[in-house]
Design brief:
Two copies of one chain form a homodimer. Chain A has a five-stranded mixed beta sheet with strand order 2-1-3-4-5. Chain A has seven helices and five strands; from the N terminus they run αββααβαβαβαα. In chain A, strand 4, helix 5 and strand 5 form a beta-alpha-beta unit. With about 150 residues, chain A is of the alpha/beta class.
Chain lengths: ~150, ~150
């Protein structure tokens, strides 16, 4: 059985890749409940000039067309924003693992109220990475979440 | 001044293009409040095998990186699903024009409760097009909204 830590490590690796590319260091991956990887990705705003590619939407895209998401798990290094929370709700993704809800809090409580199983890890390394990024790049971060 | 009908016509043209490509006939466009087109697009599930590209997310993507969405208008031929409603909420898009909320009802009331100006047109031609598509392609339609 795959542990939550193993799943989160894939998202964290995606965040690292994004950071190395000069992008916003948020990563995500979509797995089946039994730990099979369907898709992984990271925020592409800087790299592709693509405002629509948050980590979660990029992982969802990489997973291709799926007939059901009920038995899937979205693992993300950062609490999913409303855009990505809406994705989880619309497609009925059954579970979300959040690496860090201290640097940013999106719609995870709303998802839990709607029956999604939400697990918050609050990994110190992820919190430190995201906190440093927000501190060093406030304009880019605010742009990514639509804050003026 | 650009009328709502003129804005909706751009989204409707995108829906037509999508249908001609053999795709799901939903179109959208993002405008400034004073009618300048920022981006337009349509559902790309069939054409690109891309589950992440709903009409609204495709139009949002085509608009590129924007610093503020407060004075923008998302025009869509169909009521935005939760994924696309989450997009509108997260990025603070100020207004949504819905061409049809009879074939499908997404998160538009939730958006209105959160201060988004929502205008519903219910254009008979759009309702007829979407109704026929759902009738003729129930599996594809259900896949696009995550229904099993």
């Amino acid at each position: 059985m795959t542990t939550d830590a193993e799943l989160l490590a894939v998202a964290a690796e995606e965040a690292r890749i994004g950071a190395e590319e000069g992008g916003i260091p948020i990563g995500a991956a979509l797995f089946t409940r039994d730990g099979r990887l369907l898709g992984r990705g990271h925020n592409r705003r800087v790299q592709d000039g693509d405002a629509s590619m948050h980590a979660e939407t990029n992982a969802f895209r990489a997973a291709g067309r799926q007939r059901s998401y009920r038995d899937t798990v979205m693992v993300t290094t950062l609490s999913p924003c409303w855009y990505c929370s809406g994705l989880v709700k619309q497609f009925g993704i059954g579970r979300v693992i959040v690496g860090d809800d201290q640097s940013f809090l999106g719609g995870q409580h709303w998802l839990a109220e709607h029956g999604v199983e939400v697990t918050v890890v609050n990994d110190p390394a992820l919190i430190a990475t995201m906190g440093a990024f927000i501190h060093d790049h406030p304009d880019l971060w605010n742009e990514d979440i639509g804050e003026e």
